[in-house]
Design a protein that fits this description.
Layout: H1 15-42, E1 48-50, H2 55-58, E2 66-68, H3 72-83
């Protein structure tokens, strides 16, 4: 079976878009659920930090304060290297 690229849509009208939209909605729902859980424990809604290839696609769909960090792992390694 051929892979069909898809794009996010609230009302997808083809299989590729439906699969992509379902995946994005599932990820957003999981992230928002964890954020609400953290808020209940700490009283303040946390800032959501996203990284990776889909961060730019997911970030606009979240109902949260979002910070996209393109090279999060590399920035962390740099901080660790400088602390030694």
């Amino acid at each position: 079976m051929r892979r069909r690229p898809g794009a996010f849509s609230f009302f997808p009208d083809n299989t590729g878009d439906a699969i992509m939209s379902g995946a994005v909605n599932a990820l957003c729902g999981a992230v928002e659920r964890v954020a609400r859980h953290l808020q209940q424990g700490g009283g303040e809604m946390p800032v959501c930090v996203l990284s990776g290839g889909a961060a730019g696609l997911i970030a606009p769909q979240l109902n949260l304060d979002v910070k996209v960090v393109d090279n999060l792992v590399l920035e962390g390694l740099l901080v660790m290297a400088r602390s030694d």
